[in-house]
């Protein structure tokens, strides 16, 4: 069933049926009701692609994320979808797999009007942002979330990584931590730098001298990360606490502790940023800084649609911060 056939069934002109379906003021309420009833009877559905061509809109937005095997991005996408559905938009998900070249390729693809707006969280490898600046120059509505490019003047939705890391490190100190290691990932990512700065600020605040040997730069290779953590924990001056900047490094720490016979939290305490539903069931349960992922997705999408609809364009905040919370569990418990 298409629009022409529907018009023929109703014995109305193509334009009358089209306007009725768009709730035009030119069409009477009685005619609109008749058209909608027949459309429902014949299971007619609007073709969003054809409609968008007429309006020069795709009714589609793109979300570019580094990975899906991550308990943060799932709730973010759910939050985005909830707003997109309210607006009658489709959401296209693109994965960079932490690869800057793939990210560049995706943004080039999206410059041709395929989507009405773009939301992006950067890959670990992204050091050159020319491809993102190109989107801005073409006036494609763009919003960063979580992993952002600070210098690009578009709206950004983030969490309070610096303050949350300061609270997390202070929590470890309060529970007896004196030698606290920080497990980092890519230095290109704003979130990691903010988390490390919060960690360093907490050490200074509590009068603990920084030890560069306790800051470990991990990468994408899981086996390499396990070796780095293993070397850290078998050393003469091993840490008494570990602050993992991302969940996968906390899980790797659990694995290494099990291999080495180290007991959490008796021998070493562990804390991490995580949104996983599984952390309460780890043995012992893992203390986390939990990000408001769903809320971040909704807020970022709401801002993007204001850009698309050109509402309050010049009044949108450049940075929106939604606070994370610390959830204490057994991995940082102070034993008597």
TrEMBL record:
<keyword id="KW-0804">Transcription</keyword>
<keyword id="KW-0805">Transcription regulation</keyword>
<protein>
    <submittedName>
        <fullName>Substrate-binding domain-containing protein</fullName>
    </submittedName>
</protein>
<dbReference type="InterPro" id="IPR000843">
    <property type="entry name" value="HTH_LacI"/>
</dbReference>
<dbReference type="InterPro" id="IPR028082">
    <property type="entry name" value="Peripla_BP_I"/>
</dbReference>
<dbReference type="InterPro" id="IPR010982">
    <property type="entry name" value="Lambda_DNA-bd_dom_sf"/>
</dbReference>
<dbReference type="Pfam" id="PF00356">
    <property type="entry name" value="LacI"/>
</dbReference>
<dbReference type="InterPro" id="IPR001761">
    <property type="entry name" value="Peripla_BP/Lac1_sug-bd_dom"/>
</dbReference>
<dbReference type="Pfam" id="PF00532">
    <property type="entry name" value="Peripla_BP_1"/>
</dbReference>
<dbReference type="GO" id="GO:0000976">
    <property type="term" value="F:transcription cis-regulatory region binding"/>
</dbReference>
<feature type="domain" description="HTH lacI-type">
    <location>
        <begin position="1"/>
        <end position="55"/>
    </location>
</feature>
<keyword id="KW-0238">DNA-binding</keyword>
<dbReference type="GO" id="GO:0003700">
    <property type="term" value="F:DNA-binding transcription factor activity"/>
</dbReference>
């Amino acid at each position: 069933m298409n629009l022409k056939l529907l018009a023929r069934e109703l014995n109305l002109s193509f334009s009358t049926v089209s306007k009725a379906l768009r709730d035009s003021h030119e069409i009477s309420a009685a005619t609109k009701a008749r058209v909608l009833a027949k459309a429902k009877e014949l299971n007619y559905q609007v073709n969003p692609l054809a409609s968008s061509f007429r309006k020069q809109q795709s009714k589609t937005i793109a979300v570019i994320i580094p990975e899906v095997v991550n308990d943060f991005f799932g709730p973010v996408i759910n939050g985005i979808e909830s707003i997109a559905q309210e607006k009658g938009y489709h959401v296209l998900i693109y994965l960079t797999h932490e690869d800057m070249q793939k990210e560049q390729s995706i943004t080039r693809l999206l410059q041709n009007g395929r989507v009405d707006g773009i939301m992006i969280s950067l890959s670990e490898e992204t050091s050159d942002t020319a491809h993102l600046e190109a989107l801005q120059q073409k006036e494609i509505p763009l919003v960063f979330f979580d992993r952002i490019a600070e210098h690009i003047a578009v709206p950004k939705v983030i969490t309070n990584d610096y303050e949350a890391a300061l609270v997390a490190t202070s929590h470890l100190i309060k529970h007896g931590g004196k030698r606290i290691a920080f497990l980092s990932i890519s230095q290109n990512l704003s979130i990691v730098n903010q988390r490390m700065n919060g960690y360093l600020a907490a050490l200074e605040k509590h009068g603990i001298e920084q030890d560069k040997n306790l800051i470990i730069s991990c990468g994408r290779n899981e086996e390499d990360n396990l070796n780095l953590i293993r070397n850290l924990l078998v050393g003469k001056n091993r840490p008494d606490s570990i602050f993992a900047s991302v969940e996968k490094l906390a899980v790797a720490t659990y694995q290494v502790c099990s291999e080495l016979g180290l007991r959490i939290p008796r021998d070493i305490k562990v804390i991490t940023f995580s949104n996983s539903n599984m952390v309460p069931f780890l043995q012992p349960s893992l203390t986390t800084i939990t990000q408001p992922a769903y809320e971040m997705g909704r807020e970022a999408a709401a801002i993007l649609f204001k850009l698309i609809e050109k509402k309050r364009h010049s009044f949108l905040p450049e940075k929106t911060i939604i606070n994370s919370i610390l959830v204490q569990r057994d991995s940082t418990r102070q034993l008597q």
